[in-house]
TrEMBL record:
SUPFAM superfamilies: PDZ domain-like, Trypsin-like serine proteases
Keyword Signal: yes
CDD domains associated with the record: cpPDZ1_DegP-like
Enzyme active site: 127, 157, 231
Binding site for substrate: 127, 157, 229-231
GO molecular function annotations of the record: serine-type endopeptidase activity
Pfam families, sorted: PDZ_2 (PF13180), Trypsin_2 (PF13365)
InterPro entries, sorted: Chloro_Bact_Ser_Proteases, PDZ, PDZ_sf, Pept_S1C_Do, Peptidase_S1_PA, Peptidase_S1C
Protein name as annotated: Putative serine protease do-like protein
Keyword hit for RNA-binding: no
Source species: Thioclava atlantica
Length: 384
């Protein structure tokens, strides 16, 4: 019998130890992402020298959740249940005692970030700072600063944080991830396993990867080594521009096997612009349930080939209902952009702001139709 190993998708936040914690404030600041002038580097040495000062290590402290406690060999309720079972009396601080609040062991997590504005705005992954009670940033010269979380967007795993500074910080700029080519060289910088800033190189292995981790998955795949602790680190092209943010790996072992994934820079630019304005991202909402157009559905509807996105249901009191969409409609384009599969439609609608008017090109009973829809605001965990 052939022995098989289950492949696991691993976020790359390195969790290290239990220690004390502080607090993080939030604010809402407008951010205009820095875009550096393109400069093609002939070797990685010059590229790294140029961009390294803008790459930072991020250390967070937060209470451990149930999963993290289990990984440390601590069952839920530890140490209070253990103490009570052994000594027959409540442990001081037990949340089950009157006038006590729940207390959990605190852990330290390590990740990476990169400075995009000289005033201290830094981009990292949402899962790096999610739930953090304190965030500390360490720069390449060894200096440290406390950071505030400006905003977090879990849907795309992007976060914007800021440190207060009395000097201009080194920054990096964004490239155009849509122009990235499969096979082109890339350099990843991060803090794997808490060892310190490390550099790895590779190529763009693929684009548009869907990891089924969220509705807006559109990852750049790379074979540059990415490990736990690389989360939030930049992926650079040959011009020294950020074309992605290293976020996840696919691995049967927990270490890099050459399959890493980065959030595209064009997604990052859009999201952090919203986070900088109000600390959250507001997305357009249509109000339909959708599914792919299979070959069987195409044949049943009399289509020459499977194409577009099938409207399986239209929710009441939604922009879709108001605009006249019907169950069985096939959406083939939004504002002229072809919709080949459901995630294309989800991303297209979600990338527009509430109140935006879009043109939907449909097939209804195999006849073309165009509808104008004014988008609503996407609720949390909504399909489209």
């Amino acid at each position: 019998m052939q022995n098989t190993r289950k492949t696991r998708l691993l976020r790359t936040l390195a969790v290290t130890a239990m220690i004390g914690a502080g607090s993080v404030a939030t604010t809402g600041l407008a951010v205009v992402p820095n875009v550096a002038a393109a400069e093609t580097f002939t070797n990685s040495v010059d590229l790294v020298k140029k961009v390294m000062p803008a790459v930072v290590t991020i250390e967070i402290k937060k209470p451990a959740n149930d999963q993290e406690m289990a990984q440390m060999g601590m069952p839920p309720g530890f140490p209070f249940d253990f103490f009570g079972n052994r000594f027959g009396m409540p442990m001081p601080g037990d949340p089950n005692m009157p006038n006590q609040q729940a207390q959990r062991p605190e852990i330290t997590g390590l990740g990476t970030g990169f400075v995009i504005e000289k005033d201290g705005h830094i981009v990292t992954n949402a899962h790096v700072v999610d739930g953090a009670e304190s965030v500390k940033v360490t720069f390449q010269d060894g200096t440290t600063a406390d950071a505030k979380v400006i905003g977090v967007d879990k849907a795309t795993d992007i976060a914007l944080i800021k440190v207060d500074t009395n000097k201009d910080l080194a920054t990096v700029g964004f490239g155009d991830s849509d122009q990235a080519q499969v096979g082109e060289p890339v350099v990843a910088i991060g803090n794997p396993f808490g060892l310190g800033t490390s550099v790895s190189s590779g190529i763009v292995s693929a684009k548009g990867r869907d990891l089924k981790s969220g509705p807006f998955d559109n990852y750049i795949q790379t074979d540059a080594a990415i490990n736990k602790g690389n989360s939030g680190g930049p992926l650079f092209d040959a011009n020294g521009e950020v074309i992605g943010m290293n976020t996840a790996i696919l691995s049967p072992t927990g270490g890099s096997v050459g399959i890493g994934f980065s959030v595209p820079s064009n997604t990052i630019k859009s999201v952090i612009a919203d986070l900088g304005k109000g600390g959250e991202v507001k997305r357009g909402f249509l109000g339909v349930s959708i599914q792919p157009v299979s070959e069987d559905i195409a044949a049943a509807l009399g289509l020459d080939k499977p194409e577009g996105v099938l409207v399986a249901d239209v929710s009441s009191d939604t922009p879709a209902k108001t605009a006249g969409l019907k169950r069985g409609d096939i959406i083939v384009a939004v504002d002229g952009k072809p919709m080949k599969q459901p995630r294309d439609l989800t991303r297209a609608i979600g990338s527009d702001e509430p109140g935006t008017e879009v043109q939907l090109s449909l097939l209804r009973a195999n006849k073309p139709l165009t509808l104008s829809v004014t988008l609503g605001e996407r609720p949390t965990e909504s399909p489209s």
